[in-house]
Amino acid sequence: xGQRDTLKAMPLRIMVSRHSVFYSPLIATIAAGSLExxxxxxxxxxxxxxxxxxEMLRDGSVDIMQSAVSANWKPMERSESxxxxxxxxxxxxxxxxxxxxxxxxxxxxxxxxxxAVLADHGAQPFxxxxxxxxxxxxxxxxxxSMDAGTPEEMARAFRNGRGDYVHLQSPDAHQLECDxxxxxxxxxxxxxxxxxxxxxxxxxxxxxxxxxxxFVEAYAEARAWVRAAPAGEVARTEAGFFEGYSIDALxxxxxxxxxxxxWEGSVEIPxxxxxxxxxxxxxxxxIARRYPYHEVCVRA
Length: 300
What we know:
single chain; 10 strands; 13 helices; about 40% helix; five-stranded mixed beta sheet
């Protein structure tokens, strides 16, 4: 049997590099039944420490990965091949929030100067945070940036009294608020231009299959649904993926992402937002050159 027939007979192996309601368009593809309506099933897993998405797609242990166009750039510098192709946009804005210890309805970024910020030091989140700060007149060197580990470790450290602010996606950010531990005072995504933040990728060979075509149709359906459905309905549908979080925290995060326009636009990764991602990384010295769109992205 050829690859196309084999893939159709097996559950799609979907893996995510991050797990949050920011990626609701992908989670809802499974949770809201879109895959089943297109004759597909899937297994969902979270990338573990030490695993590399490009290697897993290359060796065929994963079919579809939630990642970012920027994830290709360092491997391209090292001349790694073959690399994944990015075929669908998930979010067109950064999905991180700043959570403070006290409410602040008139938050300004210069309030970070001299304060302790538990910042996510993952490559893209950290570069985007520093770009947003610079875009709002703050020199990052004047911020006391602390690395407290994984998002779960960061939230726990904040609960235990470390830091004046913590930099998290939702539901972690809004769970802190629901628990009365912190207050969401700013959206990083709203504080900088739209950007190709997160995307779906697969091997170049997989992008030619019937299974791929059906997945893209299912994903487009789910993405349109999470953009327009009541946040509470989306939260209840996805709740099984988020044990330990309250429905209120899930719904608050989803509603905020809807209002920010994170899931607007078509499934295709817009070229101008890809170029903006290059701008962000270039401004921080995070890339050696600008990588052409067609070497990283394909049309779904």
